[in-house]
Amino acid sequence: MGHFTEEDKATITSLWGKVNVEDAGGETLGRLLVVYPWTQRFFDSFGNLSSASAIMGNPKVKAHGKKVLTSLGDAIKNLDDLKGTFAQLSELHCDKLHVDPENFRLLGNVLVTVLAIRFGKEFTPEVQASWQKMVAGVASALSSRYH
Amino acid sequence: MGHFTEEDKATITSLWGKVNVEDAGGETLGRLLVVYPWTQRFFDSFGNLSSASAIMGNPKVKAHGKKVLTSLGDAIKNLDDLKGTFAQLSELHCDKLHVDPENFRLLGNVLVTVLAICFGKEFTPEVQASWQKMVAGVASALSSRYH
């Protein structure tokens, strides 16, 4: 797992401060379900996921996406202990939800894309580098309690 | 490897028609080297890669990035036979260049980010889905001759 420099932390925190977690959450989870359709299997109870527009407009997708990114926001305050921050969620995703850890990497990459769309040129190579470390760290932390 | 629907092909081709291959090439390869610094090891002869701005401004990076994306543009005309299109390049990357195939996936994801920055909201979930299939197909085709 990557070590976050002070610069990484400042970059990550600064960008996150400008993110609307509700909008970005729905966009991120929605895009995961559209771009990687097999991930829909974890959300059977969410109702209509029959098309891209159904998915992107689905209120349960938006609500759950907001929940996921709110959790990410908490992690951003604890970048030096992602494993500790995500310990319980890691156990949950393994023992109860049975989510393949590869999906955490996919979600992380989708989030990076959503940030790129949102911030455009402001999402410079250096900013992308810090965020790529962030999502890799989160994916790793979420996988850490798997057995 | 994903099967490209007629819609995928139209989406991919249409977006590609608006891409400045020279700019996008430099941006994509540059970002790969900044975001995933270990990839710099394949480009020892490129001169100054000592900082993000050095990398992004390096003329050899730009030239080689353009070469890589030009090749991708050729593949877009042959989406039904990516393996055939990339057969020789696959052998080259394995036998001569010794590039770990994981790096093809990384480059593909960087390209998706660059397109997201360039096209913003126009890079809709459906467009992203087609392009994610595209880069996955290219990565797979480039790995196909590895032994």
UniProtKB/TrEMBL annotation, chain A:
Pfam families: Globin (PF00042)
One GO MF term: hemoglobin alpha binding
Domain Globin intervals: 3-147
InterPro entries named among the record's database cross-references: Globin (IPR000971), Globin-like_sf (IPR009050), Globin/Proto (IPR012292), Hemoglobin_b (IPR002337), Hemoglobin_oxygen_transport (IPR050056)
Annotated protein name in UniProt: Globin domain-containing protein
UniProt cross-references to CDD domains, sorted A to Z: Hb-beta-like
Domain of life of the native organism: Eukaryota
Alphabetically ordered keywords of this record: Heme, Iron, Metal-binding, Oxygen transport, Transport
Automatic annotation (TrEMBL), chain B:
Domain Globin: 3-147
GO MF term set: haptoglobin binding; heme binding; hemoglobin alpha binding; metal ion binding; organic acid binding; oxygen binding; oxygen carrier activity; peroxidase activity
Record bears the keyword Metal-binding: yes
Secretion signal, residue range per the UniProt entry: none
InterPro entries: Globin, Globin-like_sf, Globin/Proto, Hemoglobin_b, Hemoglobin_oxygen_transport
Sorted UniProt keywords: Heme, Iron, Metal-binding, Oxygen transport, Transport
Record CDD domains: Hb-beta-like (cd08925)
Gene Ontology biological process terms from the UniProt entry: hydrogen peroxide catabolic process
Cellular component annotations (GO), alphabetically ordered: blood microparticle; haptoglobin-hemoglobin complex; hemoglobin complex
Family stated for the protein in its record: Belongs to the globin family.
Function summary: Gamma chains make up the fetal hemoglobin F, in combination with alpha chains.
Protein name: Globin domain-containing protein
Upper taxonomic lineage: Eukaryota, Metazoa, Chordata, Craniata, Vertebrata
